[in-house]
User: Which sequence fits this backbone?
């Protein structure tokens, strides 16, 4: 019969904050005590783990028309700044809390309207070539007050359209009007944007490439370029990829404008190249370290270098067997030990590519779980963000039960640890913005005591970078350090490893066990020891903190009562009494309360070894 250790041998095992991230490719009893078996809605900040902050709606007049496809901060040479929001139907300029339509329109001459009739008659208009079914009609200018928009049912002739509903306004003739030429892109597509020569240029892969100079109306890009799925400004050229030319699709082609002339496509140095070494299609482009344009296909990678010869670009195939499967997951980031690289989602991993022959997998620790959570049928809806000030690459993805993005994997580019997040809304894109004013005592969301951030953190100052999100229903959100997501509580939690006889505990347990049994105190450690966990000290601050434990690897969770009420201002010791006899145990720390958060620094376990099993 195994010897029984004296009950007075209480072992104290301090644990630092679990900043090693989620690890699923190693058994939960064998991972380091700094690693996690699971977590949601937590982030790493200065050697601690915090519940992530939330977001709220940006501006009045929401929702916009259509799913939000892109959000772009557009800064002109003059310093004038615009925030452009593009949906699957329209384009908007956001300014001073309101959204104004920028969508191209047809306003030539005047119309006659009759109350109760859906028929609109134009005076010397050219509607057959300029209006389509689904476009929007109204009396007055595009952003006039009290808009009432009607939808075009049919385009009957150059001078007659029929609406889907009878005109309900006052009858009249020779009236100014607007026909809003809405886009037709499905929300499963996406928008690619660039700035070049003080122009904002974008494509949705379906409609003609668009341009805006920040003041005049949005127009088609000049020079009659082909339709394209991707655009990139590189070395004085506007480059298109995956084009449609004269109704013929060229999914392996890149085409570039004349030098310094994004509206010249048929003369000068304008040209094209087809990347046809394999059957896979182009899925994205990104600049690497200023001098290289990396062109990604589904299962291969090319690198283009600008030359001084007639070919304009020297393009070489660098990688075969690995490619980009979700175009908007491609980001230029800086990773500790790797430097400036591209990060992207491949078919079997997340990769970092430095321009060398082989991309480096960076998600081995969560690979199986990562792939099992993503809906493969909707993987092209995935997108990404690089939050440089927090050393984070966010990979937003639709889960297996969702069509739209509702979760994210978060990679810390400094520690290389992975965490997970979920969202209260179905997201479709992310964009950059800056705070418009300092966050003060009066404007800080929630109560002052609720906050876990540093008061003089530069992210709280005016003009500090923040992220904006768009969703499938036309809403735009700002990541504004609030404690909720669009008014809903954030469920933040993390699960520790399974403690058995690991690095922090084994040496003390093993020596005591062997001393009692008379065995040698050298050699391999013993793991099969029954323990009585008697106490835990938690050092955290915030709102409330619920603690659970599981002795069956997370299948069942038992609450430890009472729920902790943390100090709102400092990391104080919170003592928890335990009476748990088990071979192995893991803990969960959780807050799922509206308008609350928590910040976790470290904890200490107290237990008594009770003998071998």
Assistant:
């Amino acid at each position: 019969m195994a010897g029984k250790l004296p009950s007075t041998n209480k072992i104290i095992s301090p644990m630092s904050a679990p900043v090693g991230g989620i690890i699923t490719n190693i058994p939960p009893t064998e991972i380091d005590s700094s690693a996690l078996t699971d977590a949601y809605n937590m982030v790493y900040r200065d050697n601690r783990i915090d519940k992530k902050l939330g977001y709220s709606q940006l501006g009045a007049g929401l929702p916009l028309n259509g799913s939000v496809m892109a959000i772009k901060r557009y800064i002109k040479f003059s310093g004038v700044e615009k925030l452009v929001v593009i949906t699957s139907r329209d384009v908007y300029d956001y300014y001073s809390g309101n959204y104004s339509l920028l969508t191209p329109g047809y306003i030539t001459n005047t119309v006659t309207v009759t109350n109760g009739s859906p028929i609109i008659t134009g005076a010397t208009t050219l509607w057959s070539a300029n209006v389509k079914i689904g476009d929007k009609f109204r009396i007055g200018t595009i952003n006039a007050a009290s808009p009432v928009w009607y939808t075009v049912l049919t385009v009957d002739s150059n001078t007659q359209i029929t609406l889907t509903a009878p005109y309900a306004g006052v009858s009249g003739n020779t009236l100014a009007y607007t026909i809003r030429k809405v886009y037709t892109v499905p929300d499963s597509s996406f928008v690619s944007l660039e700035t070049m020569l003080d122009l904002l240029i974008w494509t949705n892969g379906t409609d003609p490439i668009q341009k805006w100079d920040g003041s005049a109306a949005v127009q088609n890009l000049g020079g009659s370029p082909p339709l394209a799925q991707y655009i990139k400004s590189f070395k004085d050229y506007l480059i298109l990829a995956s084009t449609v030319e004269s109704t013929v699709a060229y999914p392996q082609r890149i085409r570039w404008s004349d030098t310094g002339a994004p509206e010249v496509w048929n003369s000068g140095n304008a040209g094209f190249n087809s990347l046809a070494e394999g059957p896979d299609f182009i899925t994205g482009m990104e600049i690497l370290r200023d001098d290289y344009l990396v062109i990604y296909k589904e299962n291969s990678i090319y690198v283009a270098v600008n030359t001084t010869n007639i070919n304009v670009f020297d393009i070489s195939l660098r990688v075969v067997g690995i490619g980009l499967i979700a175009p908007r997951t491609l980001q230029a980031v800086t990773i500790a030990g790797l430097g400036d690289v591209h990060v992207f989602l491949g078919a079997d991993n997340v990769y970092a590519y430095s321009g060398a022959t082989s991309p480096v997998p960076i998600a081995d620790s969560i690979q199986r779980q990562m792939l099992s959570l993503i809906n493969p049928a909707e993987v092209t809806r995935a997108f990404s963000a690089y939050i440089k000030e927090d050393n984070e690459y966010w990979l937003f993805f639709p889960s297996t039960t969702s069509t739209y993005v509702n979760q994210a994997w978060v990679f810390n580019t400094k520690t290389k640890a992975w965490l997970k997040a979920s969202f209260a809304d179905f997201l479709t894109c992310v964009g950059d913005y800056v705070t418009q004013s300092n966050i003060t005592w009066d404007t800080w969301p929630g109560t002052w005591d609720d906050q876990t951030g540093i008061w003089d953190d530069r992210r709280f100052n005016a003009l500090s970078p923040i992220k904006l999100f768009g969703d499938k229903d036309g809403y735009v959100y700002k990541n504004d350090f609030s404690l909720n997501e669009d008014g809903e509580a954030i469920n933040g939690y993390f699960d520790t490893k399974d403690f058995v006889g690991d690095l922090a505990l084994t040496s003390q347990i093993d020596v005591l066990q062997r001393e009692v049994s008379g065995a040698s105190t050298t050699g391999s450690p013993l793991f099969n020891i029954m323990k009585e966990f008697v106490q835990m000290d938690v050092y955290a601050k915030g709102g409330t903190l619920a603690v659970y434990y599981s002795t069956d690897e997370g299948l069942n969770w038992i609450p430890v009562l009472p729920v902790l009420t943390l100090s709102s201002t400092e990391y104080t010791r919170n003592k928890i009494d335990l009476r748990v006899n088990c071979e192995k145990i893991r803990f969960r720390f959780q807050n799922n309360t509206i308008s609350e958060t928590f910040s976790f620094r470290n904890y200490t376990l107290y237990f008594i070894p009770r003998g071998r099993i």
Q: What stands out?
A: Helices lie at 127-130, 367-373, 506-517. The first strand starts at residue 11 and ends at 16. Confidence is low (pLDDT under 50) at residues 1-7, 450-458, 502-516, 519-526.
